[in-house]
Structure formats: structure tokens, C-alpha cells
Specification:
The structure holds 2 protein chains of 2 kinds. Chain A has helices at 14-28, 81-92, 120-146, 155-164, and strands spanning 35-40, 61-66, 72-74, 77-79, 109-114, 169-171. By secondary structure, chain A is α/β, with parallel strands linked by helices. Chain A has a domain at 58-136 and 167-171: Nucleotidyltransferase, domain 5. In chain A, helix 3 packs across helix 4 (155-164). The longest helix of chain A has 27 residues, at 120-146. Chain B is of the alpha/beta class. Chain B has a domain at 50-152. Chain B is 32% helix and 20% strand. Chain B has helices at residues 2-8, 20-34, 76-79, 97-106, 128-140; strands spanning 50-51, 55-56, 63-69, 84-87, 90-92, 117-122, 145-149, 151-152. The termini of chain B are far apart. In chain B, 29% of the residues are buried. The chains are: A alpha/beta, B alpha/beta. At the A-B interface, helix 1, strand 1 and helix 3 of A face helix 2, strand 2, strand 6, helix 5 and strand 7 of B. Strand 1 (35-40) of chain A pairs antiparallel with strand 2 of chain B.
Chain lengths: 180, 155
């Protein structure tokens, strides 16, 4: 062995330095994925434009009201949140049978109105139940036609199912009855 | 034969740790790539509600976050206990939302502007009045895509 002109640098502490950096990134990292309910807000109505909803028959509107005490009034009847999903499904999936429920899902509109005092938690659960009702109906239809769930469908098939059950949730301006 | 014996008699050799830095570096790079630095310090209590019908947000960089909730413990004396709106690093009013959305648009490249989404991260105890004010402002600002941030609940 001949003597080298330069002694080798000791790389033993490289691991320590790397560990230090690693721990820093481990601590600062946030791995949580952002999840949530996606909604689209309606455009601001033009000035002096009055929404003409008289053309929509009353039977095609499913009125969901939430008051400041987080109570639900659905079609003028008190309802528990656990029944909302089934109720919405029955309304959408009526096909003209019951004269109080919708003609067909294309015409059906869910109208949601909340008070300014409604808690956010309640509002999200109501939105969630309404979405769930639509999702379950779409899933059922997709299973019948294509044998898979709605979310697994692609392209035109997905559009077809979406056209069958369009998610029409309309939100009225909130009222301030219950106070803050 | 004696040569064989001599080799075996050395005891277990020390495991080489020369590749340890490589392994650590590998982990390090993984975390460096996946990490998203927290951009804001939360000034409000933020327990999100739970929902089942959730969608994932694909690109976080397209999100502008609006936090709503009661001020955290240290801020209560200064800002009260009622839920408030936090934009970036400060408490703001709902009238500042339009400006906030405009600033986000400014800093986004043009082709991505239609994909921008506003994430409302509101506390479970927040009241809808405040959320409605935000929604009205967003409508005025023509930022129609919104996302109510929730945790995913498995049924």
C-alpha cells in the first residue's frame, strides 16, 4: 500500500446530518389530504331580475328548511336528519306515482334554505345527506346498466347517468329568524 | 485445513454501516418531495365536520383557504369568542374576501384561473350566517367553485 497524498474524509457523520434533515422534514410535513364537499355557487342575479319559479310545479320542489336550532322542516313536516336521505330518494325516484312527489328526477329540484343561526355542522350534514341520496340513485342506475358504481364510470356513460339524475340543489338566501 | 479454521474463528464481523447514509437520504428525499409547508398559522379553532360524500382536492396549489372559527385560546382576550374569518395570517371581515380571491387570481397563471377553488375550512361551531356572508362575497367575486372542507367519515 502506498501512502495517499490526501487522507480520506470521514463520512461517518454524514448519516447524522442526513438524519437531522430527515427529522426536520418529518416534523414539518403534513400528509393530510384535503377532502370536502364540492359545490358550485350560482351567479349573482342581475339587478331587478326576479327569479320566476312559478313555472316550476310545486310537486317538483323538495323544500328543506333548517332553523337556528338545527331542526329540519322537510315539505312542511318535521324530520330527523337520519330520514332525510330516504326522503330525498323517495322524492327523486317517484316518476309521477305519488302526486306530492316529483314527476321525474330531471325536473326535481331540492331547495335548501337555512337560517343564519344554523350551525355549520348541521348544514354540512344536510348537504351530505342530499349528495348521498343522489349518489345512491346514480349508483343504482349505473349498477343496473353497466354493472359498476357511478364513480367508476367514464366519459359518456357517466354523463348519461348524470343526465338521468342531475344534482339540482338550489339554495335560497338565508333568513335571519332565529337571531344570532 | 488450518487456513479454514483461521477464517471462521474471527467471530461475526461488524455489519457495515456504510450504506446507512444512503438509506437515510432516500427517506429524506421522499419527505422533501412530499412535504407541503404549512403556509399559515391557524388563529382559529378548526375542527372540521365529517361527511361521507367527499371528494379529494387534486391540486392544493389551486386552493385558496378561508378559515372560520372562534379565535384560539391565546387570542380570545383580544378578538373575542365569536367565530371569525381568517385569511392568510390575520383576522379579516367578510368584505375582504373579494380582495383575497383577486390576489390569488393575480398570482396564478392564466390557464389555471378557471380551475381555482375556494376551500372553506369552517369550525363545526361556526354559524351559517358568517358562511353565507362569505358565499355572497364569493359570488360577487365570481369565484363559484367552492369546497366545504370536511373529514372523511367511513360508514
Amino acid at each position: 500500500m502506498s501512502r495517499r497524498s490526501l487522507p480520506e474524509i470521514n463520512a461517518g457523520s454524514m448519516a447524522d446530518i442526513a438524519f437531522l434533515l430527515l427529522i426536520f422534514f418529518l416534523v414539518t410535513t403534513t400528509m393530510d389530504v384535503d377532502t370536502g364537499l364540492v359545490r358550485k355557487l350560482p351567479a349573482m342575479p342581475e339587478e331587478e331580475e326576479i327569479l320566476d319559479d312559478s313555472q316550476i310545479k310545486a310537486r317538483n320542489i323538495y323544500v328543506v328548511l333548517v332553523n337556528a336550532k338545527d331542526q329540519l322542516l322537510v315539505e312542511e313536516e318535521l324530520m330527523d336528519i337520519s330520514q332525510l336521505r330516504e326522503g330525498t330518494k323517495a322524492f327523486l325516484d317517484n316518476w309521477g306515482k305519488d302526486p306530492n312527489l316529483s314527476d321525474n328526477p330531471q325536473k326535481a329540484i331540492v331547495s335548501l334554505q337555512n337560517d343564519r343561526g344554523t350551525s355549520y355542522e348541521m348544514y354540512v350534514s344536510v348537504q351530505n345527506e342530499l349528495s348521498a341520496a343522489y349518489r345512491e340513485l346514480r349508483d343504482r342506475e349505473a349498477q343496473k346498466k353497466f354493472g359498476v358504481n357511478y364513480m367508476e364510470l367514464k366519459g359518456d356513460n357517466k354523463k348519461e347517468i348524470r343526465k338521468m339524475f342531475p344534482e339540482k340543489i338550489s339554495e335560497a338566501e338565508p333568513k335571519n329568524v332565529g337571531g344570532n | 485445513m488450518s487456513r479454514f479454521k483461521k477464517k471462521k474463528g474471527g467471530g461475526t464481523p461488524a455489519i457495515s454501516t456504510a450504506s446507512l447514509p444512503d438509506i437515510v437520504f432516500m427517506l429524506l428525499f421522499f419527505f422533501m418531495v412530499t412535504t407541503v409547508m404549512r403556509e399559515t398559522t391557524l388563529l382559529v379553532e378548526n375542527t372540521l365536520p365529517q361527511a361521507t360524500e367527499v371528494k379529494k382536492i387534486e391540486d392544493k396549489s389551486l386552493c385558496s383557504y378561508i378559515y372560520v372559527g372562534a379565535p384560539v385560546a391565546g387570542m380570545k382576550s383580544k378578538f373575542g369568542t365569536e367565530p371569525r374569518i381568517q385569511l392568510n395570517d390575520a383576522f379579516r371581515l367578510s368584505s375582504d374576501v373579494q380582495e383575497f380571491v383577486a390576489a390569488k387570481r393575480e398570482s396564478t397563471s392564466e390557464e389555471k384561473i378557471p380551475q381555482l377553488i375556494t376551500c372553506i375550512k369552517a369550525d363545526v361551531d361556526a354559524k351559517m350566517g358568517l358562511i353565507s356572508d362569505i358565499k355572497q362575497e364569493l359570488r360577487k367575486a365570481k369565484a363559484f367553485k367552492i369546497n366545504y372542507a370536511t373529514y372523511e367519515r367511513v360508514e
